[in-house]
Amino acid sequence: MNKEKSIIGNIFHKNGRALGSMGYFILLMLVFLIGAPEAWMRPSLHQSVFVMLPTLIFLVIPLVFLVASGEIDLSFASTYAVAAYIFAIMVKTGIDPAIAILAGILTGAIIGAIVGALIVVFRLSSLVASLGMLFLLRGIILLLTESRSITIMEIDTHWTYFALVGNFYGFPMQIFWAAIFVIYCYYLFSKHVFGIHIHHVGDNAVSAEQMGINVKAVKIKAFMFVGIGAAIGGIFTTLITYTFFPTQGFGYLLLALAAVFVGGTPYWGGLGTIVGAIFGVGIIAYMEIGIIAIGWSGTWRQFFNGLIILLALLGHRLHGERVR
Length: 324
Known about the structure:
There is one protein chain. Helix content is about 75%, strand content about 0%. The chain has about 325 residues and is mainly alpha-helical. It has a domain of about 210 residues. The model has no long low-confidence stretch (mean pLDDT about 90). It starts with a helix and ends in a 5-residue tail after the last helix. The chain has 15 helices and four strands. The protein has a two-stranded antiparallel ribbon. A two-stranded antiparallel ribbon has the order 2-3. Strand 2 and strand 3 form a beta hairpin.
C-alpha cells in the first residue's frame, strides 16, 4: 500500500505542472458547460476551436523550448507574417505551393537564427532585442505590401491545400498535423539530447558549459525552432483563409505567451512541460469563445485571460520551489 502511494506521489511530483494545467482546463470547461450548456453541446462551437488550436500549438510548443532555456522571444509574431508573406507571394507568382511552403519555413528558421545570434553572440537582452525585431520585421512587411493583403484563391485546387487544411470526416486536417508536431516535440523535449541540453542550459548555463554543452548553439537552435513554428503557423493560417494579411500574427503574441505560462512552463528557465502547454493552449482557445458563448461581452476576455494567467503562475509557484 505504501509502495503504491509512493508511486502515485512520484507521478504527481514529476507531472505536477502538467496536472495543474489540466485542472485549470477542466475547471474552465465546467464553468462554460454550466454557464451555457446548449451552446457548449453544439459541435460547431468545438469545430471553430479546432481551427484555431493548431496555429496556437505551432507557436506555443517551440516557445516552451526557448523559455525553458532561459530566454524569451517576442519577434515570433512578426516572423509569422514574414514567412506567410514569402509563401503567399511565391504562390501568387506561380511557384509550386510545396516549394513555397519550404521557402516559408526556411525563412522562419533564418529569422530565428538571426534573432538568436543577436541575443546570444552580441549578449543583448532577449526581451528588448526580440521586441526590436518584432517591430522591425512588421515594418518591413508593411513597406513591402503597402499594407495590402495578398489573395491566393488558386491554392484550393492544389494537393497541398487538401493535405494540410482540408477536411477528413469533418475534422480539419491541421488537427492531425498539430498532433504529429506535438508527439515529435514531446520526444525532442523529454527524450532527445537536445531537450536534455535545453533543461541544463536553462537551469544553469555556466554549469552546462562546464559539462561540455555548447550553450550558444543550444540557444540559437531554440530560437530557430521558434521561428520554424511561427512560419508553420503563418502558412497554415494563410492556407485556411486563402489570404495573407500584413497584420496577421500580431494578435497571437500575448495569447501564445499566455498559453506557455498557463501551461506550466515557468519564466525562470530550467523547467517546462509539453503536455501542460497543450492544456494551456486549450484554456486560451476556449477562453476566446467561451466568454461569448455564455452571453458575456467580448471585453471580458482580457480580464479573464489576465486573471487565469496570474492564478496559474501562483499555483505553479506554490507547487514547489525551483529544482536544481
